[in-house]
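Researcher: Quick test of sequence recovery. Tokens follow.
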């Protein structure tokens, strides 16, 4: 059985964005953001064909939500890993896995609300 993403059949663009951005941002907290975008891209294109939405209105917000979700953990973006490595090389203690979530969660929330509105 093939695994696929299903975002339902929203009636408005805002509801469609909510159904897309929240899972993308959430998953990006636990795995790197690039595979999240790769995993969602074809599903979004198929979903837009079925729903009658223009896929170009969803792909860039998908990327942004994934990047913002990645700011919530050390492994979410490669930039976080590089900064952690540089900090450790300088003799300071590095970050814990979700230590930067105190900054990343508000950024992700505000950013996703902005994209939806």
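Model:
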């Amino acid at each position: 059985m093939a695994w696929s993403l299903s975002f339902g059949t929203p009636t408005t663009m805002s509801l469609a964005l909510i159904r897309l951005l929240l899972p993308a941002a959430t998953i990006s907290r636990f795995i790197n953001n690039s595979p999240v975008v790769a995993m969602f891209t074809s599903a979004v294109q198929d979903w837009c064909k079925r729903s009658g939405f223009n896929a170009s209105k969803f792909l860039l917000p998908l990327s942004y939500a994934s990047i913002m979700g990645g700011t919530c953990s050390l492994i979410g973006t490669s930039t976080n890993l590089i900064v952690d490595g540089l900090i450790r090389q300088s003799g300071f203690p590095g970050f814990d896995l979700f230590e930067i979530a105190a900054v990343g969660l508000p950024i992700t929330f505000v950013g996703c609300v902005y994209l939806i509105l």
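The two ends are 37 Å apart (CA to CA).
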